[in-house]
Structure formats: structure tokens, C-alpha cells
Design a protein that fits this description.
Helix 2 runs parallel beside helix 3 (63-81). By secondary structure, the chain is α+β, with helices and mostly antiparallel strands. The longest helix is centred in the last third of the chain and has 20 residues, at 176-195. The protein is 42% helix and 26% strand. Strand 4 and strand 5 form a beta hairpin.
Length: 196
């Protein structure tokens, strides 16, 4: 019995076991219990700010926890839209290549929130998500982010087309702030290449 508890404590300390358990629960729930959605429609994932999420002030979500919650939102979206299955069928991989986040108001301790995740654009190499945190009691947009998901091993268009309602979907029109962020990423990438 002591050996089992030692192994359990070692796992909790060395591996963030809670994260992997939550990913498994999110994947199973998205696959079997929540309705399937079109790849261009938003998915909603619900959460609550707990004591494991707060920063050193002990009253609102830590900045890094937003990014972590966004992982769960994208997992939910990947599974419910069929993008995960499509990605695997083409032996492709999605990798977070960049993200930008804007905090408007904090999500305080024990405050429930809704995370909305939606594909807002894609190009020949990447898929772009917008992810928004709304507090449930007032439906206020607390935090908003863009995430660039690099698609390795296949084109984004091919993966999206495989699960889309239309044969060859066109990317949605990108907003001006998203285009500026894409341009920033491209220029930043070019400047980093010059350093090598």
C-alpha cells in the first residue's frame, strides 16, 4: 500500500497528472456526449476558476492558466468537428506556432466561465483560432486570444475539406487585427532568420 501511494505521489509531483486526466475527460466528453459541429462553427467549453488556477494574489486566474484552458477548448473543437480524425487520417500534426492574448477583466476565484473556440482563418500552412473567455453571470468578454496552429504533414485546406459541409470551403475573411498579427509574425520570423 505504501508503494502504491508513493508511486501516486511521485506521479502527481513529477507529471501534471490532473492535466492529462482533464484532456482524457474532455476528449471522451467531446466525442461521445456533446453534439458534432461544423469546423467553422464555435464550440463552447465551460470551466470555473478554482484555487489551482489563481495567481499569487489568490483571487483571479493566473495568466498561464488561460493558455492551458485554451488547450482544452481546442481539443473540444478538434474532436467535435472531426478535425482530429481528419488530421490523423492524413498523418498530420497541429502545433501551436504563436499566440497572442488580451486580458480585459479578470476571472475571479470560483467564477464560472465559458470558453468559445472558433476557426477564423487559414492559409497554406496554418489554421487560426480565436478563443474568447466570457463570464457566465454577465456574458462579459473577459479575455480574447488568437492562436496560430501550424499544420505539419498536410495542408489545412485538405484537413478542413475532409470534414466540411461544403466540398471546398474558402477561408473566412480575416479581421484587420488578425491580419496585422499575421504580418507581425511573418516579419518577426524574418528578423529571427537574419540572426542565425
Amino acid at each position: 500500500m505504501v508503494e502504491l501511494s508513493t508511486v501516486a505521489i511521485a506521479l502527481l509531483v513529477s507529471v501534471d497528472l490532473g492535466y492529462f486526466i482533464k484532456v482524457a475527460i474532455c476528449t471522451i466528453g467531446s466525442r461521445f456526449f456533446w453534439s458534432r459541429i461544423s469546423p467553422l462553427h464555435p464550440s463552447s467549453f465551460y470551466g470555473i476558476c478554482t484555487v489551482r488556477d489563481v495567481d499569487f494574489l489568490l483571487n483571479h486566474i493566473n495568466n498561464a492558466r488561460y493558455l492551458r484552458a485554451m488547450d482544452f477548448g481546442r481539443v473540444d473543437h478538434f474532436v467535435r468537428t472531426g478535425l482530429y480524425r481528419s488530421m490523423k487520417s492524413y498523418s498530420a500534426t497541429f502545433l501551436v506556432a504563436a499566440s497572442t492574448i488580451r486580458y480585459r477583466k479578470p476571472v475571479y476565484l470560483f467564477m464560472p466561465y465559458k470558453l468559445q473556440s472558433q476557426i477564423v482563418y487559414w492559409d497554406d500552412k496554418s489554421i487560426y483560432y480565436r478563443q474568447d473567455f466570457f463570464t457566465i453571470h454577465d456574458n462579459f468578454l473577459r479575455t480574447t486570444a488568437y492562436v496560430k496552429m501550424a499544420v505539419v504533414g498536410c495542408s489545412p485546406e485538405k484537413i478542413i475539406s475532409a470534414v466540411s459541409d461544403t466540398p471546398l470551403p474558402t477561408p473566412p475573411q480575416a479581421s484587420s487585427d488578425l491580419l496585422l498579427w499575421i504580418q507581425y509574425n511573418a516579419e518577426n520570423s524574418d528578423s529571427l532568420k537574419k540572426l542565425q
